[in-house]
Amino acid sequence: MTPFMHRVQALLDGGAAPRAVTALSEPRPVPIATDSQVIVRSVAEQLVSEANAVLRDHGDLISLDDEVGPGGLSFTLGYQDHSARVQTTVSGRSAMACLVMDGQAGQQPRMLSGENELQALVLSLIAARPRH
């Protein structure tokens, strides 16, 4: 098992989930913002695969859904009744990343502070599940 898979198992065994660290989102040049979105999306796919390998014996799996349109790129991670949407919206020559949790964006657009925070985001979705 990978280190992340061990973290998922520890969480299922009653461990605490870390909180994903976010930062205020600011407009960035489109190439830089979309490159970051693609990198984070690639990491998300790997983490979802690893998490689902552990979750498979516990019922629900994490979903990963992409959306591409003329105004930007986004993907949504879903687990049971919870979701996290990571999106980059393009406007002219700039783009802005935004993290939307359970359909709620904050007053100020926020983004993950780095691709490593995606692990914490996935773990926080799993931790939000009802405990039996």
Structure in words:
It contains three helices and seven strands. About 35% of the residues lie in helices and about 30% in strands. The protein is of the alpha+beta class and about 130 residues long. It has one domain. The chain has helices spanning about 5-10, 30-55, 115-125; strands at about 20-25, 30, 65-70, 70-80, 80-90, 95-100, 110. Helix 1 packs across helix 2 and helix 1 packs parallel to helix 3. About 30% of the residues are buried. The chain has a five-stranded antiparallel β-sheet with strand order 2-6-5-4-3, covered by helices on one side. A hairpin with a 2-residue loop joins strand 3 (about 65-70) and strand 4.
Describe the secondary-structure layout:
Blueprint: H1 3-12, E1 22-24, E2 28-29, H2 30-55, E3 63-69, E4 72-79, E5 82-91, E6 94-101, E7 110-112, H3 117-127
Antiparallel strand pairs: 1-7, 2-6, 3-4, 4-5, 5-6
**Count of DSSP helices?**
3
Q: Report the average pLDDT across residues.
A: 92
For the sheet with most strands, the description reads:
5 strands, antiparallel
> Which regions are unreliable across 5 or more consecutive residues at pLDDT < 50?
none
Classify the secondary structure makeup into a structural class: alpha+beta
- Dominant shape: elongated
Q: Please list the strands of the largest sheet in the order they lie side by side.
A: 2-6-5-4-3
What is the β-strand count?
A: 7
